Amino acid sequence: MKKILSGIQPSGRPSLGNYLGAIKPQVSLQDEADVTYFIADLHAITVRQDPAELKKRTYAVAAWYLACGLDPEKSTLFVQSHVPAHAQLGWILNTFAQMGELERMTQFKDKSKRHSHNINVGLFGYPVLQAADILLYNIDAVPVGEDQKQHIELTRDIAIRFNNHYTQGKEGAKPIFVVPEPMLPKTGARVKDLQNPTAKMSKSIDGKGTIFMEEDVKSIAKKIRSAVTDSGSTVEYDVANKPGIANLLEIYATVQNISIEAAQNEFSGQQYGAFKSTVADAVVAEIEPIQKRFNELMNHRAELDKILKVGAEKANIQAERTLQKVMRKVGLVPPAV
Ligand code: TRP
């Protein structure tokens, strides 16, 4: 089975767009690959965080993924800071990353502008820690969006550089790191704003066009029923001329796990009002049990802690194995066991 890993920033308040576009497809990958997801709390602190908020969001991300169906038996879910090897390998890899290549990272340049009062060393080294996250686990593919491709390229460069350094001129020496490939993330729906269906559903606009996963289901249904459509009357998937209808069809198809054509056929001849009610009901039917499970987990931190502990233990076994191998290669004396 293909080994896939991704880190998730602890932002904690997912929208319907995040769920249908990212979380749902990420969770479904567990059926076809060996998936590892972790909450990238060490990356998060490279910009200032409110401690109580960070803690809450870390739990919330874990709870959302589990509530959305991530199965801790099939997959591995853990908190990055619970597996010390990430920071340890990150340190070693710092010595294989060049100032010049880190200075060229687009995310570093952007974040330095946005946080110009706090351009800390952690922010600069962020991609090196990300390389450690990946290289510890012999990962084949990392599903990431456009903005993270450069970091995956850097991870490959560091892995190849390290492998070459310790194998060059040594007959039969095996490479230490698996060199990962970037992978187009399994795409879910590209959900648009319900009031402005040519723009992405944004989390920063807290209005009638955005649905949050934690929102009261009555309010969710109301927002869908009052979504902007056009003055026509046929339910067709036509993004250019009927963006509002197309958005609702995409939402419906993703929620029901059916194709857009199948969704469109289901509503042929129906009025917009009836169509929107059916979409609203389907979304509520999907989200309500997720919310219930989310709230249960958030109210039973001990259960969440237990799941995260098991995840960290699983991750730690593989991570330690790689770290020990790296330490030996570098010439660091491994601690006696
Ligand atoms: N940098 C990623 C982001 O901002 C999060 C991340 C951290 C990550 N470590 C990773 C993603 C390792 C993939 C693999 O989204």
Q: Secondary-structure blueprint of this entry?
A:
Elements: E1 3-8, H1 16-28, E2 34-39, H2 41-44, H3 51-67, E3 76-79, H4 85-94, H5 99-103, H6 106-114, H7 121-135, E4 141-143, H8 149-167, E5 181-183, H9 217-225, H10 243-256, H11 260-266, H12 272-299, H13 301-330
Parallel strand pairs: 1-2, 2-3, 4-5
Residues 5-7, 9, 40, 43, 130, 133-134, 142, 144, 148 line the site of tryptophan (TRP).
Describe the protein's architecture and organization:
There is one protein chain. The protein is mainly α and 337 residues long. The protein has two domains: 3-188 and 300-330, HUPs (Rossmann fold); 217-296, Tyrosyl-Transfer RNA Synthetase (Orthogonal Bundle), CATH 1.10.240.10. It is 53% helix and 7% strand. The chain has helices at 16-28, 41-44, 51-67, 85-94, 99-103, 106-114, 121-135, 149-167, 217-225, 243-256, 260-266, 272-299, 301-330; strands at residues 3-8, 34-39, 76-79, 141-143, 181-183. A three-stranded parallel beta sheet has the order 1-2-3, with helices on both faces. The model has no long low-confidence stretch (mean pLDDT 95). Tryptophan binds at residues 5-7, 9, 40, 43, 130, 133-134, 142, 144, 148. Residues 5-7, 9, 40, 43, 130, 133-134, 142, 144, 148 line the site of tryptophan.
